[in-house]
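Minutes, structural biology subgroup

Action item carried over from last meeting: produce the structure token record for Ribonuclease Z (Candidatus Desulfolinea nitratireducens). EB confirmed the sequence was re-checked against the source entry. Recorded below for completeness.
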Amino acid sequence: MFEIIFLGTSAAAPSIRRGLSAQMVKHDEYRFLIDCGEGTQRQILQSGLGFKRLTRVLLTHGHLDHILGLGGLLSTLTRWEALDEFEIYGGRHTLDRVHNLLYSVVWPGRKPDAKVHLREIKPGLVFEEKDFTITAFSVTHRGPDCLGYRFDEKSHRPFLAEKADELGIPFGPVRRDLINGESITLADGRRIDPEDVLGPVKKGISLAITGDTNRTDNLIEACQDLDTLVIEATYTHEDAEMAGKFGHLTARQAAEMAKQAKGKQLILTQLSPRYRGKEILSEARAIFPNSYVARDFDTYQVKREEI
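Output recorded by EB:
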């Protein structure tokens, strides 16, 4: 299961109810901060998430409303939270701006109290664990090296506990070995193969976050068949010309893209303060009914459907 917590859902400038762009994605013990707009560290505290196990941020691009909060966040983490290491992922242009922010403003002329790694990435695999991956994909916005991120659970075969009980397989390492695809021999001499206790292959769940974008045709492949797509909807369609001018999407464009990519759920974020959420939601649901508009501190779970 992935869990996404929205920490900031406004576009370009904060409003009374919406902070600047930031989301936290959780998977088991892992936490990934996606972008870090001004005020993000306070949003993290107010959400109840706290700073525990927060050691990685994935940046979509280098505009200030997506990176400016890194200065305050890292100043706090390295000074008060006994942080050993922190990793910042992004394109070259983005990391150049982050470097200037951190080493010209936060730590001028000195090293931070923790190891801060600037990890330059390009489209492709960014992070892999035994049960999930993160890949980056190219996004078109104003400026170079803009990225979106896709989180995918790996396909797996569920362990059939009831079948294992029927076969008299004891709890412990032998069950783990079967889950890992290894045959075992029981104390009574019976050989048990993984096929005896594993169900059919199940596709893992998937989540993608695009960041700012003003095109969707080049995102269809990267965002195909998602369980949840998080994408900006800064404008309504009546302001489509303005959206194009400033490199953003309308709610209608976002919904059309989700439909073309055969997604299951659409979550819209980064709203301009000029609109109310229900205006954006109405426009999107006319095309893609399973649409939602995120508010600050909303939490969505992306999990496998129970049968």
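Discussion: The longest helix spans residues 92-106.
Next step: EB to file the record with the rest of the batch.
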